[in-house]
Design a protein that fits this description.
The chain is an alpha/beta fold. The protein contains 9 helices and 7 strands; from the N terminus they run E-H-E-H-E-H-E-H-E-H-H-E-H-H-H-E.
Length: 265
């Protein structure tokens, strides 16, 4: 079976400013790079501890003609997010799109039996509280500037739940609730949506014990598209929700999981 030659990325962010949280590694890094490929003027690259990764992302962004600006913050702290939002708008002037990508999947946990209160607290603090703080603080400033779009990165884990890490599924459900709430609150000036990928073959995923012991192959067999994509393939899909083509979408939930969870009307 032959596949068509991929087209060059569209220039959907020409002369616009995009912020991506958790852009030092993995999916966030690829979203930041894709924004630059699509013509973004400036790309805010947020990181918590991956300074080296963020700098590598910045090099890639700059090579594509965009201006990278690095920001450090622990989004589990609301005060830190408030300071981050002040810094971002101070440095960038305007933020046309914000992609809230940071999330803790409790990657080292292989079973619900390994659940700890510490892990529950951290996952909920980062995924729900952190995403809420980013949406609240960035979105309120977008309201002041008169426009903007926010994309919160969710997961299709909410469809089936997670026997491995129930706290992760609970957190991603929370992101749906807060997204719908702020979509109502910010309409019609600022749009807020969820992008829900399925499994992504990031370096961190490929290094997981369960992935290496056969889970990856099992999931591929259960996916109608027959493969698990890398982060670069889904970056443009996530960004779609922040483009003019999605101008009538808010409070939405966009799935890209190769058909693994076919749900709907």
């Amino acid at each position: 079976m032959t596949h068509p030659v991929p087209l060059p990325p569209p220039r959907r962010f020409e002369d616009r400013s995009v912020l991506v949280t958790g852009a030092g590694t993995g999916f966030g890094a690829e979203i930041a790079v894709r924004a630059a490929q699509e013509g973004a003027r400036t790309v805010g690259i947020h990181y918590r501890s991956s300074r080296e990764g963020a700098e590598q992302t910045a090099v890639r962004v700059q090579a594509l003609g965009a201006q990278p600006v690095l920001f450090q913050a622990d989004i589990a702290s609301w005060d830190a997010v408030k300071a981050l939002a002040d810094e971002v708008f101070g440095e960038l002037g305007t933020v046309d799109a914000a992609i809230n990508n940071v999330g803790d999947v409790a990657r080292e946990q292989m079973s619900w039996r390994d659940l700890t209160e510490e892990s529950v607290d951290h996952v909920l603090a980062v995924d729900i509280k952190g995403t809420m703080a980013c949406t609240h603080e960035l979105g309120s400033r977008m309201l002041d500037q008169g426009h903007g779009a926010i994309v919160n990165i969710g997961s299709t884990v909410i469809v089936r739940g997670s026997a491995r890490a129930p706290q992760y599924a609970a957190a991603k459900y929370g992101i749906v609730g807060l997204t719908k709430s702020y979509a109502h609150a910010f309409a019609p000036t600022v749009r807020v949506n969820v992008f829900a990928p399925g499994f992504i073959e990031t370096a961190a995923t490929l290094a997981r014990q369960d992935w290496q012991s056969g889970r990856g192959e099992q999931l591929k067999a259960m996916t109608p598209m027959g493969r698990i994509p890398g982060p670069e393939e889904l970056a443009g899909t996530a960004l779609f929700l922040a483009t003019d083509d999605a101008s009538h979408m808010t409070g939405g939930y966009l799935v890209a999981d190769g058909g693994y969870n076919m749900v709907g009307a």
